[in-house]
Amino acid sequence: MKKKKYFLKEFFKEKKTVGAVSPSSKALGRSMLKNINFSEVNAIAEYGPGTGVFTRMIIKKMKPGTKLLVFELHDAFYNNLVKEFKDNDNVILINDSAENISKHMKEQGIEELDVVLSSLPLTNFDKRLTANILKRSHGALCPKGLYIQFQYSLNAKRILKRIFKDVSIDFTAKNIPPAFVYTCTK
Ligand SMILES: C[S@@+](CC[C@H](N)C(=O)[O-])C[C@H]1O[C@@H](n2cnc3c(N)ncnc32)[C@H](O)[C@@H]1O
């Protein structure tokens, strides 16, 4: 099944957690990745890859040996990611909520992350889940680490500012719908 059609099908099954009707554009992916210095990244986590549009872009830019932890909650998306990325030893696919980041880092022997890249529809979640994900991500990042998140509105600004030191916001019109990219420093 084509990626767009299959994404839409998953959206109708799980509207709140999928949070979008089609996969993001590569232009949004470029905007998400533009502040990452991949030559200094040893460990990165991606939350909510869906059909893997950003995952593919990250893998292309990662230096050899960088570990990518990928958290996808929904089985259908996860199973397809396994089919595509199972032969890449540096990609660790996790069929669990991003909320459990600390447990999985421990299991993988990863002490800190350089980057968290999140597509989670944060403002659809209950407040406790959002706060847990953000606080635990903050705790998992190295001192110079970046938390990068896209959203379709500016509603996430307040909660991100409460947890991260500095939050800068970019806008990209080349996505359906247009999106804001938040880049947060620890
Ligand atoms: C807006 S979609 C983004 C998909 C893809 N990154 C893109 O931009 O096209 C959100 C994704 O987050 C996943 N998701 C929702 N809640 C999650 C959670 N707690 N942990 C991990 N993934 C989650 C959904 O299954 C979905 O794949």
Query: How would you name the CATH homologous superfamily?
Result: Vaccinia Virus protein VP39
Q: What is the percentage of strand-forming residues?
A: 15-25%
Summing up helix and strand content along with how strands pair, one would put the structural category as: alpha/beta
| N-to-C span | 40 Å
Strand order of the largest sheet: 3-2-1-4-5-7-6
How many H/I helical runs? Answer: 8
Instruction: Give a count of the beta strands, DSSP E runs of length 2 or more.
Output: 7
**Which class in CATH terms?**
Alpha Beta
The major pleated sheet works out as:
7 strands, mixed
The radius of gyration is: 15 Å
What is the N-to-C succession of helices and strands?
HHHEHEHEHEHEHEE
Tell me what the structure shows.
This protein is of the alpha/beta class and 186 residues long. The protein has one domain (3-185): Rossmann fold (3-Layer(aba) Sandwich), CATH 3.40.50.150. The protein has helices spanning 3-13, 15-18, 26-33, 53-61, 75-85, 101-108, 127-140, 157-163, and strands at 43-47, 67-71, 91-94, 113-118, 141-151, 166-172, 179-185. Strands 3-2-1-4-5-7-6 form a 7-stranded mixed β-sheet, sandwiched between helices. Helix 5 (75-85) links the parallel strand 2 and strand 3. The longest helix is centred in the C-terminal third of the chain and has 14 residues, at 127-140. It is globular and about 40 Å long. The termini are far apart. The model has no long low-confidence stretch (mean pLDDT 94). Bound molecules: S-adenosylmethionine. S-adenosylmethionine binds next to helix 2 and helix 4.
